[in-house]
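thoughts on both lines:
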Amino acid sequence: MWIDSFQNETILYAAVINGGGMDTRMMEHFQAYQGDDNRRHKYVLDISVGAMSQDGSGEMDYANRMKMVTLVGASTTDLFICPENIYQEYSREENFLVPVEQLMGEEFVSAHSDICEKDAVRVENSKILERYGYRSSGPAYLIVFQYSGQKEAAADFVEFLLSE
């Protein structure tokens, strides 16, 4: 029955910019990693936003820009995995991204200083992302938005991506 879906709860919504072709079953793997067997809990991997236009100009086209702005403006996505230019765009906004030390803790930042920025974790070398089809030609930044109500799940997702 259609009303049954109202009982679902999104535990984490992750958008991967330029993630086209990725296997969204990665989130099933993450749910198992969490030990979460509740069928009502949803883990979403959105790979619908591309950072490059179809004309090869290097600029994000209007449709992709609007998808990205809507995901953030509607507070739909908890986090992005994105190229450097998009990370820089959001990083310039004051108090918009969760500082890594606040999200992951001081010990994590000390142990991973080579991949931690003030408000992002570099994940382009994640074996898990690679296994599920992520291809990066440059740095990839995982950023978590301040409005997210799922910061603990986002922190667990960072740990998951770096677990191998």
Q: What stands out?
A: The first helix runs from residue 26 to 34. Strands lie at 9-16, 41-46, 79-83, 121-122, 140-144. The two ends are 40 Å apart (CA to CA). Residues 2-161 form a domain with the D-Maltodextrin-Binding Protein; domain 2 fold (CATH 3.40.190).
